[in-house]
Automatic annotation (TrEMBL):
Alphabetical UniProt keywords: Oxidoreductase
PROSITE patterns from the UniProt entry: ALDEHYDE_DEHYDR_GLU (PS00687)
UniProt entry tagged with the keyword Flavoprotein: no
Listed SUPFAM superfamilies: ALDH-like (SSF53720)
Record-annotated active site: 257
Family classification: Belongs to the aldehyde dehydrogenase family.
Protein name, entry field: Aldehyde dehydrogenase
Aldehyde dehydrogenase domain ranges (all copies): 21-481
């Protein structure tokens, strides 16, 4: 299974198809590049169409004729718990791999890996919290509403949090009784292959789970397969639109968790020292490579300069560098193409007339690695591209407003609606504002991604929810049985 080893990232020479490690159909490989050093640190097989077809066939057979969908929910929950145990045993390794593959800091990597385990353990109780069968009267007769697994699931996951995103899709799918084919992004496949080892060790029936890294073309082949009943995708809105169009051809079920341009609304009554460090971390933590990041900072116009004066030292205190080192908060972007994208948006912001307060270039002394300085723009208007488009980098846009009504209008003036936050000492005011923001989740005087809650967005931030029993329901079909 394992071909070569570098510390801590391992190479793989096999694909995980139907619960077994098998030889790929070709000798094509994905080179995993460390964004800190720009060096190739591992290789994994680059799955081809034939490999995906084999995985879907295994999943179809396992769903149609295998034991997994026919086990009791409690039996499946016990198996999911074993996966969580195996993942826990690999937590340190996975955190190190996340730092090497994606450039995440130690603290962020540890937090993310813990979230993956939490999602799996939460799924072990879904069947206790969701009524799978209900007796109902129908036209004077006895009836029953039942919920059954949707079938074969194709899960396409991104690079910015591969293990926790995989857990968030796999856990409800398995709990529902589905079989799953996973396509990880080629930028960060090693963590998901270690996840496959955890699944193998947990001893699931044959055909239930496959994990095959590959690029966009093989991902499109997967979601186009007529034997796939549901697609769950996390990634860009543009890719989500493409997947949705493919699924529409056969009315395949689809869950989409897409982009965001979330707003942090700062009320007039709150001291900046009570909220600034947390807000900044929510905006540029993980180098801003988080779909729910608070990248638009809305502040009363008369407090904009006060905010900037307080913001600059917070940004300056965040050490940029090798995220494997103690004290480093901001690591590199995942790839050269991503750095070029972010630098392009920084130049667009300048051309649009926004003012760079801090950052805007590459950090001094970091000659290797895909680093960009944390950057803050001031005097941003919400019609600028840097305020409307997802940059996915360590860039904050400070947008002034004159009153609360304008702040709400600005926050909602977006094609996205994924996350957000309101900071105010008057918590009643904060809640009134929060309830009027068109977004899938919003925090008051804090910000976090809570693994046990439903996650998803309004508008072009996606369809459906992942997490909690609401996410579990997305992997079930509803059937009515009427008795005469």
């Amino acid at each position: 299974m394992t071909a070569t080893q570098t510390s801590p990232v391992r190479s793989f020479d096999s694909l995980f198809i139907g619960g077994r490690w098998v030889s790929p159909s070709s000798d094509a490989v994905i080179e995993v590049i460390n964004p800190i050093t720009e060096e190739v640190i591992a290789t994994v097989p680059d799955a081809q169409d034939a490999d995906m077809d084999a995985a879907v066939a295994a999943a179809r057979e396992a769903f149609d004729h295998g034991p997994w969908p026919r086990m009791t929910p409690a039996e499946r929950a016990e198996a999911i718990g074993r996966i969580a145990d195996e993942l826990h045993a690999r937590a340190d390794e996975l955190a190190l791999v996340f730092a090497e593959e994606v450039g995440a800091s130690k603290a962020f990597a540890t937090l993310i890996q813990a979230g993956a385990e939490t999602k799996l353990r939460d799924a072990t109780t879904f069947h206790e919290r969701f009524e799978l069968e209900t007796e109902v009267p129908i036209a004077g007769n006895r009836g029953r509403i039942t919920h059954e697994p949707v079938g074969v699931v194709a899960a396409v996951i991104p690079w910015n949090g591969p293990v926790t995103t995989l857990a968030g899709k796999l856990a409800p799918s398995l709990a529902a009784g589905c079989t799953v084919v996973v396509k990880p992004a080629p930028d960060a496949p090693v963590g998901t292959m270690i996840f496959a080892e955890a699944i193998e060790a947990a001893g699931l029936p044959e055909g239930v789970v496959s994990i095959l890294p590959g690029g966009r073309e093989v991902g499109e082949h997967l979601v186009s397969n007529p034997d796939v009943d549901k697609v769950t995708f996390t990634g860009s809105t543009a890719a989500g639109k493409r997947i949705m169009s493919i699924c529409s051809e056969r009315i395949a079920r689809v869950t989409l968790e897409l982009g965001g341009k979330s707003a942090a609304i700062i009320a007039d009554d709150i001291p900046f020292d009570q909220m600034l460090s947390g807000m900044v971390a929510a905006g540029i933590g993980h180098s801003g490579q988080v779909c729910a990041a608070l990248t638009r900072v809305l502040v009363p116009r008369h407090r904009q300069q006060e905010l900037l004066d307080a913001l600059v030292p917070v940004i300056e205190s965040m050490t940029v560098g090798d995220p494997r080192e103690e004290g480093v908060v901001i690591g590199p972007l995942v790839a050269e193409r991503q750095r070029e994208r972010v630098e392009g948006y920084i130049e667009i912001g300048r051309q649009e007339g926004a003012r760079v307060v801090i950052g805007g270039g590459r950090p001094a002394g970091l000659d290797r690695g895909y680093f960009v300085e944390p950057t803050v723009f001031a005097d941003v208007t919400n019609d600028m591209r840097i305020a409307q488009e997802e940059i996915f980098g360590p860039v904050l846009c400070v947008i002034p407003f004159d009153d609360v009504e304008e702040a709400i209008a600005i926050a909602n003036d977006s094609s996205y609606g994924l996350s957000g936050a309101v900071y105010a000492q008057d918590t009643e005011l904060a809640e009134r504002i929060a309830r009027r923001i068109r977004t899938g989740q919003i925090s008051i005087n804090t910000w976090s991604l809570c693994p046990g809650t439903p996650f998803g967005g309004f508008k072009q931030s996606g369809l459906g929810r992942e997490g909690g029993v609401e996410g579990y329901a997305g992997y079930l079909e509803t059937k009515v049985i009427q008795y005469g």
